[in-house]
C-alpha cells in the first residue's frame, strides 16, 4: 500500500484541502497537511476557462509539474481524463504520475459508466501505484438516484478504483447506506451546510475533500476586503505579509 493509500485507511478520515497554485499549496502544507489536492475550478477560472469542459489539460499538467516535487502528497483533479479514449486517459495519468502526482480524481460527468470503468482500468494498468479516486456525478449533476449511484460505483470498484467519490451526497443516512455496499474508501465533498468533519468520520467516511471551497472563499475575501476599503473600514481577516508570501517562492527555489 502506498503512503497516500494508507491515509485512506487511518483511524481518522483524510481531510484533503484543495490548492490552485504554489502559494496556496505551500500555505496549506505549512499548516501540517500531509496530502493536498488540486481543484479543477481553481485551474480553469484563473485562465478564463470553463470548468469541467476538458479545456485545461495542459494547465493541469503544468500545475502538477509545479507542485509535484514539493514535500507533500499530491492528488490531481483530472476531470474526466481530458479524453474519451481510455488509452489516452491512461497516457495522461502516466504523465501526471511522472510529474509527481500520487493520486487522481476521474469524474464520470454522468456519461457512460462502462466507458468510465474502462478509463479506470486503463489507468490502473498503466500506473498501478497511482491512487484512482473514481467520482460519480449522480448527486452533483443528476437526481441522486441511489440505485444508479450503487451501480456506477460497483462498476468502478470492479474496474480497479482505489476509492470512490460522491460529491453532493451529504445526507448521513444516505452515506451510511452507501458505505455498506462499498469495498473501497468513500470520499465525500465537505459542505458548510452538511455534516462536520468529525460527524463524517463517525459515519465511516475515509476521505473528506474541500473541492473548490477554499478557492471560492479566497475570492470572497477579495470582495469583502474591497467592500470594507470602499466603505471606509479596515479589512478584517488574516492577511499574510508581503515578505511571508515572498518567502514561499524562496522555499520553492531552495527545495
From TrEMBL:
CDD domains: ICL_PEPM. The keyword Lyase applies. Residues 233-255 are annotated as: Disordered. It comes from the Bacteria. GO terms for molecular function: lyase activity. Pfam families: PEP_mutase (PF13714). The keyword Lyase applies. Gene3D superfamilies: Phosphoenolpyruvate-binding domains. Keywords: Lyase. This is Isocitrate lyase/phosphoenolpyruvate mutase family protein. It comes from Streptomyces lutosisoli.
Amino acid at each position: 500500500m502506498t503512503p497516500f493509500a494508507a491515509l485512506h485507511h487511518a483511524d481518522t478520515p483524510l481531510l484533503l484541502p484543495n490548492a490552485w497554485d504554489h502559494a496556496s499549496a505551500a500555505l496549506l502544507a505549512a499548516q501540517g497537511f500531509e496530502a493536498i489536492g488540486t481543484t479543477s475550478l481553481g485551474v480553469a477560472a484563473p485562465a478564463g476557462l470553463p470548468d469541467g469542459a476538458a479545456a485545461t489539460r495542459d494547465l493541469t499538467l503544468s500545475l502538477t509539474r509545479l507542485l509535484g516535487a514539493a514535500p507533500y502528497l499530491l492528488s490531481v483533479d483530472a476531470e474526466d481524463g481530458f479524453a474519451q479514449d481510455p488509452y489516452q486517459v491512461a497516457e495522461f495519468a502516466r504523465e501526471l504520475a511522472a510529474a509527481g502526482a500520487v493520486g487522481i480524481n476521474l469524474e464520470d460527468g454522468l456519461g457512460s459508466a462502462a466507458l468510465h470503468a474502462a478509463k479506470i482500468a486503463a489507468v490502473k494498468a498503466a500506473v498501478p501505484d497511482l491512487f484512482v479516486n473514481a467520482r460519480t456525478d449522480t448527486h452533483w449533476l443528476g437526481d441522486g438516484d441511489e440505485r444508479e449511484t450503487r451501480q456506477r460505483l460497483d462498476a468502478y470498484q470492479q474496474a480497479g478504483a482505489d476509492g470512490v467519490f460522491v460529491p453532493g451526497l451529504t445526507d448521513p443516512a444516505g452515506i451510511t447506506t452507501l458505505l455498506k455496499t462499498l469495498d473501497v474508501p468513500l470520499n465525500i465533498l465537505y459542505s458548510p451546510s452538511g455534516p462536520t468533519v468529525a460527524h463524517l468520520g463517525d459515519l465511516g467516511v475515509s476521505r473528506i475533500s474541500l473541492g473548490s471551497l477554499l478557492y471560492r472563499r479566497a475570492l470572497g475575501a477579495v470582495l469583502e476586503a474591497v467592500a470594507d476599503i470602499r466603505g471606509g473600514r479596515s479589512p478584517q481577516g488574516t492577511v499574510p505579509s508581503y515578505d511571508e508570501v515572498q518567502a514561499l517562492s524562496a522555499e520553492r527555489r531552495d527545495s
